[in-house]
Amino acid sequence: MSDLLPPVKSGNRRPIVQASARQTIVEGCCILSDQREAARFGMILANETEMPEKVCPVVYRKVDGIPHLLAFQHPSGDYQFVKGTIQEGECHSTAALRELREESGLHPTQAARYLGQSQIGAPPLQWHFYAFLACHAPEQWKHRTEDDCGHTFSFFWHPLVRDLDHQWHLIFHEALQVIRRTL
After folding, report:
1. Scanning 74, 77, 93, 116, which has the fewest C-beta atoms within 10 Å of its C-beta?
2. b/e per residue, 122-136, with b = 16+ CB within 10 A?
């Protein structure tokens, strides 16, 4: 089980930078020369030459045995799951943690479980899904994002068994189908 801790200051992040065409420094601590070497460490690096890939950290908790997914209302009025773009040279799992922290303020204390990947949207983009079990997260909260122009998102829990309505963008309807199959 994974507990989610309250936010920490963003200055505690270690940078992810491109060192050269063949080396990438990931989290400021290890140098990886290619995908094969990254795989040795259980990391998947974002491909620098293709369309951007997305990551969706799926935070869930169980209420009466039924999984509920973390979701939020965007200031524009639509509902979303946490997701974001994997930065150049960034590991998918690192991107999932970063997006979760930036968009929700949550900090998992244990590693996520990789749920898989799927092509979502038009044009189709590769999405990677990671599951985080929340044990002590509040029922609702608001968080001012570190990205997305500093919007304030209103978080809530959406039952996995409930279909999404018209207030959700179509990509999240697709994402929910993947989450239902893999969670």
Report:
1. 77
2. eeebbbbbbbbbbee
Q: Are 168 and 96 in contact (CB under 8 A)?
A: no
Burial class (CB within 10 angstroms; exposed 0-12, middle 13-18, buried 19+) of 97: buried
pTM to 2 decimal places: 0.73
Q: What is the percent of the chain with per-residue pLDDT over 90, rounded to a whole number?
A: 63
With CA atoms as reference, report the closest residue to 156 among 54, 56, 86, 63: 63
- The CATH architecture to which 4-182 belongs is Alpha-Beta Complex (3.90)
* Strands 152-159 vs 30-32: parallel, antiparallel or unpaired: unpaired
Domain ranges of the chain: 4-182
- Dist. CA 137–CA 180, nearest whole Å: 21
